[in-house]
Amino acid sequence: MNSSSTALVLFRHDLRIADNRALAAAAAGGRPVVPVFVLDRISPGTRPLGGARHWWLHHSLAALSGDLSRLGSPLVLRSGQMQAVVETLVAETGADAVFWNRRYDPAGRAVDAKMKATLRGRGLAVQSFEGQLAHEPSLLKTKGGGPFRVFTPFWKAFSAGIEPRDPVDIPARLVQPPSPVATERLEDWALLPTKPNWAEGFAARWTPGEAGAQRALQDFVEGRLAGYAANRDVPDGKTTSRLSPHLAHGEITPFQLLSALRHGRIAGSRADHEKFRQEVGWREFSWHLLFHNPDLGSENFNKSFDVFPLTADGRGFEAWRRGLTGYPIVDAGMRELWRTGWMHNRVRMVAASFLVKHLLIDWRQGETWFWDTLVDADLASNAASWQWVAGSGADAAPYFRIFNPVLQGEKFDPDGAYVRRHVPELTNIPTRFIHRPWEAPRDVLFRAGVKLGETYPVPVVDHERARRRALAAYETVRGQHDDRSV
Q1: CATH entry, 303-478, from 1.10.579.10, 2.60.40.10, 1.10.3860.10, 1.10.510.10
Q2: What DSSP state is assigned to residue 486?
Q3: Choosing a second label site near 140 at 20 to 30 A (CA), which of 70, 105, 159, 346?
Q4: Distance between CA 15 and CA 247 in Å, rounded?
Q5: Does the pLDDT value for residue 278 go beyond 90?
Q6: Cα dihedral angle (12, 15, 20, 25), rounded to 10 degrees?
Q7: Residue 97 backbone phi and psi in degrees, to 5
């Protein structure tokens, strides 16, 4: 490589300047660097981001652009097919090297493999680096030499391996190319919703960008990490890290999270630290599954579930989507999702279980809705988690585990604070009935200003009947079942 010639650095799921090995490597020789983000909606197999992630992407790119400009070389924005755009930029800039951090989704891997071969065939130096994951899915294997299918042995192998590296420093400066490189305008990409602006409530909850990610990490490890193991299932309040959207956009890396636990000024017990490490591990495991099972988001991992008797309950799906099922914990979660682009993980499981097991609706419909509405929508975690709940996935929840939305609400939201926050029409319902308003006497409902079927819906399905129906449906797959509910 010629230290005086230009290098391109491709940004994809790595919208950061710290712990960015591709950026650091390109800048190391003092050569001119052109940072590039390509909005690729064309490459075969590419799944367009959902609306909530488009909102985040706009703000994250704006933050990244400012950070790169302060380093010395502004971000170039282009839209089109990834390889075609890169080849055009190589011609425009005279670049003889291209750097990027690896992608692990099936479409991204295919595009990058072809692009690397083409560019190298033309004499360019091409280097790729890890950063999105703390393990390489192609290298971490079972004793039999294959991929993992169960979390516990995966986690043991991950934990027994080489300690994840420390984060890479931000380059001291970037050298700008001799001639300005044409860029598209972020505003012209129309990533933000306008009429209606359904993301109006997002800004109060989130700060997209690398600086926001670092603040969130610091706030968590120095504060909320204490008690994390015991409190993470409580949906009301700040009991989780809220780092998932920053991870999804690569504003922070798993190496930075794990390093903070090893070296940072941290709160919490050993149990808190290990529980958080395991949550990072579940993300790694989800990507391990997707890497080795490219159709994880569209096909049952366990093919025996292809015969599961699904329903085409359009009214049920619409009630679930809008948070009008009549089950307060489910409705609170679905409304939190719509208003903030996020839902607490425990409630995600309850809401997902309700769709699949109470309504017998295909998990893929729920996965698609979450993909569009979550700011942390992650190709691997979204698919793996939905299949886990449905019982069709790797290391899945037992098919007989049918979350009782009433008991789940009473266990994890005992005073009803979460429900009252997101289902305000139930604000004045006594705590005794907050998760089962249909059991409240008429005078109690009257004093609370609730008219079931008018101001708040009656349940779209009876839990006990739905549970029996779901177990019968699963019996067609399993042949037998253990009659349990949690």
Answers
A1: 1.10.579.10
A2: -
A3: 346
A4: 10
A5: yes
A6: 60
A7: -150, 145
Q: How many residues does the chain have?
A: 486
Give dist(CA 481, CA 459) in Å, integer: 26
CB 346 within 8 A of CB 335: no
pLDDT tens digits along 124-149: 999 999 999 999 999 999 999 999 99
Name the architecture of domain 133-167+209-292. Alpha Horseshoe (1.25)
Cα–Cα nearest to 55, from 249, 217, 212: 249
Given the DSSP bridges, would you call strands 33-39 and 125-129 parallel, antiparallel or unpaired? Answer: unpaired
Tell me the fold of 7-131.
Rossmann fold (3.40.50)
Instruction: Count the Cβ atoms, other than its own, within 10 Å of residue 206.
Output: 22
Residues 44 and 107: beta-carbon distance below 8 Å = yes
Contact between residue 177 and residue 71 where contact means Cβ atoms under 8 Å apart: no
211-250 residue pLDDT tens: 999 999 999 999 999 999 999 999 998 899 999 999 999 9
Cα–Cα distance between 25 and 18 in angstroms, integer? 12
What is the layout of strands, in order, in the sheet containing 97-101?
A: 76-79, 33-39, 7-11, 97-101, 125-129
The residues pairing with 9 across neighbouring beta strands, listed in sequence order, are 35, 99
* The one-letter amino acid at 254: P
pTM of the model: 0.95
Name the maximum alpha-carbon separation found in the chain: 82
Return the structure tokens found at 165: 């590296």
What letter would DSSP give residue 299?
S
Cis peptide bond prior to 137, omega within 30° of 0: no
Give residue 472's identity as a one-letter amino acid code. A
Q: What DSSP letter does each residue of 330-397 carry, written as one string?
A: HHHHHHHHHHHS---HHHHHHHHHIIIIIS---HHHHHHHHHHH-TT--HHHHHHHHHHHHT-STTPP
How many other CB atoms sit within 10 Å of the CB of residue 274? Answer: 16
- One-letter amino acid identity for 305? F
Partners of residue 77 on adjacent β-strands: 37
CA angle 357, 361, 363 (to 5 degrees): 85
From the list 138, 76, 77, 86, the residue with the least C-alpha distance to 115 is 86
List b or e across 313-351, with b for residues whose CB sees 16 or more CB atoms inside 10 angstroms: beebbebbbebbbbbbbbbbbbbbbbbbbbbbbbbbbbb
